[in-house]
Amino acid sequence: MAAGHPARRAAGGPLAVCKALRDQGCPCPSTELALQVGGGVVLVQELLPGTPLELLDHHGLDQALALNESQAGLLAGCADIPSMHLYLQDDGPGYCLHEPLRLHSPRSGALERRVRSVGAGHPPRLAGDDVVHQDFHHGNLLAVDGTVTGVIDWDGAGRGDRRFDLVTLRFGLHAQEQAPGVVRRLDDILDALPDDVLRPCWAHMSLRMTDWAIRHFAPGDVEHWLDLAERRL
Q: What are 36's strand-pairing partners?
């Protein structure tokens, strides 16, 4: 396969990330087969025990935070694994599109301008050698009787700053009611992050979720994500 083919990119990115995690004992599924099918990749992965968490309680948040800490520095010396692109000034590959925000409403257009402004003041890619899941929400945590047994959906994983995943987790908690105090705890953690970490990560997730809602969900859902985006942007 050519280096640009999806299966080769997966082997050099998400699959390599998962191997680094498993080598450290993290509950990440092994991949038994990666097969090129047309323009995409079909993966055959290990079936981990447990079912996705529907809600995140304080015990679940403790485990999520511990998992996030375990991702620190695991990709030091792995410069061949791509760092995560934030797409704050240009479009992502099918997500993080800017034009839908510009066209949808004055409010979403104003958000898009703030996202681009943040992008003008920060590097386009995340710095760091941590593992970044990129879609680290509670629905991707498997658990048995409240104990996390695995983390799934590593398709977008790459290198960067693990704290990006805490911002993703916060956006995931916005989708539905959570146990009392959980969101406040996570907000307090995010508020303590350096501005040059929190601001570009928040801008990325604001763009990602608002764009996706505009193109795939009802108008009320767009306002739901705008409400969250504007809290820190």
A: 41
Domain ranges of the chain: 48-232
Strands (E), the chain: 31-37, 40-45, 51-52, 130-132, 141-144, 147-151, 158-160
Radius of gyration of the chain (CA): 18
**The dihedral sign for the CA sequence 151, 157, 162, 167:** negative
Rounded to 5 degrees, φ, ψ at 85 are: -85, 135
Fill in the amino acid letter for 19: K
CATH second-level architecture of 48-232?
A: Alpha-Beta Complex (3.90)
Q: Is 152 helix (H, G, I), strand (E, B) or coil?
A: coil
User: Tens place of pLDDT for every residue, the chain, 233 residues?
Assistant: 233 444 344 445 788 898 889 888 889 888 766 666 666 666 677 788 999 999 999 999 999 999 999 999 999 988 899 999 999 999 999 999 999 999 999 999 999 999 999 999 999 999 999 999 999 999 999 999 999 999 999 989 999 999 999 999 999 999 888 999 999 999 999 999 999 999 999 999 999 999 999 999 998 899 999 999 999 99
- DSSP H helices, 121-152, are none
Q: Residue 198: how many CA atoms within 13 Å on its side-chain side?
A: 15
Q: Long-range contacts for 64-68 (Cβ within 8 Å, ≥24 apart)? A: 64/136, 64/138, 64/141, 64/148, 64/169, 65/166, 65/189, 67/26, 67/27, 67/148, 67/151, 68/136, 68/162, 68/163, 68/165, 68/166, 68/169
CA distance 74 to 56: 26
